[in-house]
Structure formats: C-alpha cells, structure tokens
Write a structure and sequence with these properties.
This protein is mainly alpha-helical. The chain has a domain of 91 residues. The longest helix is centred in the first third of the chain and has 39 residues. The termini are far apart. The N terminus and C terminus are likely disordered. It comes from Salix purpurea (Purple osier willow). This is PROTEIN ABIL5-RELATED.
C-alpha cells in the first residue's frame, strides 16, 4: 500500500485517473440503487393489493424505505466526495500563475494606496469655474482690492498736494528781510573762503602764496 501511495504521489496523472474511476463507480452504484428501489416499490404494491394482512406489509415497507433512504444518502455522500477530490486535483495552479496573481495583488494594493494619497491632497473649492480661465473676468475680490488701491493712491496724492500748498503758503508769509539775510550770509561765507584758503596755502585755490 505504501508503494502504491508513493507511486500515486509521484504520478499525478495516475492519481487523477483513479479519482475518475472512483467517481464513475459511485455513480454506477447510485444507478443500481435506483433500479433496486423501483423493483422494491413494485413488489410492495403487488403484495399490498393481493394480501389480507395489509398492516404487516405496510410495516415492512416502512422499514425497507428507511434503509433505502440511508443507503441513498450514503451513496450521494460518496459521489460528492469523489467529485470534490477530482475537481481539486484537476484545478491545481502552477507556481508561475501563483506568482503572477501575487504580483497583480501587490500592484492593486499600490494603486489603492496612491489613489488614497491623491484624494487626501485634493482640496474642495467653493468656486468651480465651468469655462476656461481666459474667458472669465476677474473675481469680485480682486476688483475690490484694486479699487481700494486706487482710493489709497488718490488719498496719498491729495495729502502730498496739501502739504506742498501749505509749505508754499508759509514761505509766502515770511518777511523779505529773512530772505535778504540768508542771501547775505551765504555770499559772505563764499567771499571769506578764498581768503582762508590763500592764508593756509590751499593747493586747489587759484592764487597760491608760498613763503
């Protein structure tokens, strides 16, 4: 028995053929059981019609039916077991197919993670334009900001003009003697400067005096 098991494990084709043979044998037994049940039903019917002891015939028929149901269930379990073993052996995947499926699963998990990261970066905007940006006018906020800048610039220009007019009015109100005094002081300082440079011997002066 050990040798046969080792041979079957080494030869998967022989193992599959044995499963097929078992499955066919279990199906044949189930067919034979069906024919036996038909014959038993006919025999019970004829005996029940021809005999006077009908109560005994009914009791024997009940016992036979119980045994027949048990045998049918047993045969059905055998058929299903053989069918499952043959399907499991015939649907075996190779190592290459398993590796390919594993790689596909990894790629799918990576794609799901990438989509999840991309969704976290997406921000919801209250204003969603339906047209191209070249065909859209400036938003109201930018227009209000530009208007505020224009008003601010006009206010600064008006304040500078007011300050210049105030300085001009103050200069006009000063007496004439103030202007003449400032002019005389500037001219006297200019006249004294060449003399001082001549005394000190400034090389940049026009008339140098050498001792």
């Amino acid at each position: 028995m050990q040798i046969s098991k080792s041979d079957a494990s080494q030869n998967p084709e022989s193992h599959e053929s044995q499963d097929v043979i078992r499955f066919e044998k279990s199906l044949q037994e189930l067919r034979d059981l069906r024919s036996q049940l038909h014959h038993a039903a006919n025999h019970c019917e004829t005996t029940f019609l021809n005999t006077t002891q009908k109560h005994m015939v009914v009791e024997s028929t009940k016992e036979y039916l119980c045994r027949a149901v048990v045998s049918v269930v047993d045969h059905l379990g055998c058929v299903s077991a053989n069918l499952n073993s043959s399907i499991s052996n015939s649907c075996a995947f190779s190592e290459a197919e398993l590796r390919i499926n594993c790689l596909k699963q990894r790629l799918l998990s990576c794609e799901k993670y990438a989509h999840r990261v991309a969704l976290t970066r997406v921000k919801w905007a209250a204003y969603l334009p339906k047209h191209h940006h070249r065909y859209l006018s400036k938003p109201i906020t930018s227009v209000e900001k530009s208007n505020e800048d224009i008003v601010r610039d006009s206010k600064t220009e008006a304040s500078t003009k007011i300050l210049m007019a105030r300085h001009e009015s103050e200069a006009a109100q000063l007496p004439l003697s103030f202007h003449t005094c400032t002019d005389q002081k500037s001219t006297s300082a200019e006249n004294l400067w060449p003399g001082i440079s001549a005394e000190k011997g400034d090389p940049h002066s026009g008339d140098d005096i050498y001792i």
